[in-house]
């Protein structure tokens, strides 16, 4: 198997809702494992998501969890997840769905390099960049 880079997002108790949202955006198969299933959950944390994995029809893998009991959400680096390709309808659809309930920080429109590009923040605070390559690029 070749190497893959998969985004792994950590949420403050909203991983289930976030991953269900992403399944609505991208489609695919979502597997959710809770802290309670491990038998080691702190009281009240049984339904928290220990690990979630979404495998999409487009070949994307998105993983996530809630902050584990006893740990703090670090805030980490300020990153964006980038989607790119030449299937304009698919990518425009993703952009629209990701921004729904969130915010558009840069409208999806033609840029000086010739592609369509836009940025948004989804309802869970994750930043997304979408680049649609022009035919023949």
UniProtKB/TrEMBL annotation:
InterPro entries: Glyas_Bleomycin-R_OHBP_Dase (IPR029068), Glyas_Fos-R_dOase_dom (IPR004360), PhnB-like (IPR028973). CDD domains: PhnB_like. Residues 4-130 form the Glyoxalase/fosfomycin resistance/dioxygenase domain. It holds the Pfam family Glyoxalase. This is VOC family protein. It comes from Blastococcus brunescens.
